[in-house]
Amino acid sequence: MMLYLMDIWDSVRGFMAAGGDVLWLVAAVLFVMWVLMLERYWYLNWISPNEHKAIISSWDAREDSTSWYAHRIRESWISQAKQNLNARMLFIKTLVAICPMIGLLGTVTGMISVFDVMAVHGTSNARMMAAGISMATMPTMAGMVAALSGVFFSTRLDAKMKISLEKLKDSMRHH
């Protein structure tokens, strides 16, 4: 088992070395993005149902649910629940949007490396240019894969949050 983990670590290190320093930045952004998305899934599945039950029980305990003031209180509680649900979603979506841009930064730095090799050694040394080309393509690929995973899961998360909020609204009857 330990040997297997060492092989995986060596593969990751080789991939990161071939992709250059920008690949570490892509990995850091991806890590932060996934930590935030997992936190939002945790909040959505374990914390918000209890908060919504408390809001619904507070609403049901009110004697007045028909006046103008009662409607404003209901809207305020729903708005607070919406804010709690959408917390950090803008930051997650920003990180998703940044991933391809960081990958393109890797493309630029890799091509600069290729041009540097061409200036020093000429165009005849394809082996030395290959390292720069690898540094140009791997961060782009990694940034796109990171963005795609983020788009898919943040969209699902957003949809689940909207459904949760609608269920809360439907549970708070008003006349």
TrEMBL record:
Any one Pfam family match given in the protein's UniProt record, by short name: MotA_ExbB
Membrane topology term: Multi-pass membrane protein
All copies of domain MotA/TolQ/ExbB proton channel, residue ranges: 63-167
Entry-linked InterPro entries: ExbB/TolQ_transport (IPR050790), MotA_ExbB_proton_chnl (IPR002898)
Location(s) in or outside the cell: Cell membrane; Membrane
GO process terms (BP): protein import
Cellular component aspect of the GO annotation: plasma membrane
Transmembrane domains' residue ranges: 12-36, 90-115, 127-153
Domain of life of the organism encoding this protein: Bacteria
Principal subcellular localisation of the protein: membrane
Family statement: Belongs to the exbB/tolQ family.
Protein name from the UniProt record: TonB system transport protein ExbB2
Organism: Shewanella violacea (strain JCM 10179 / CIP 106290 / LMG 19151 / DSS12)
GN (gene name): exbB2
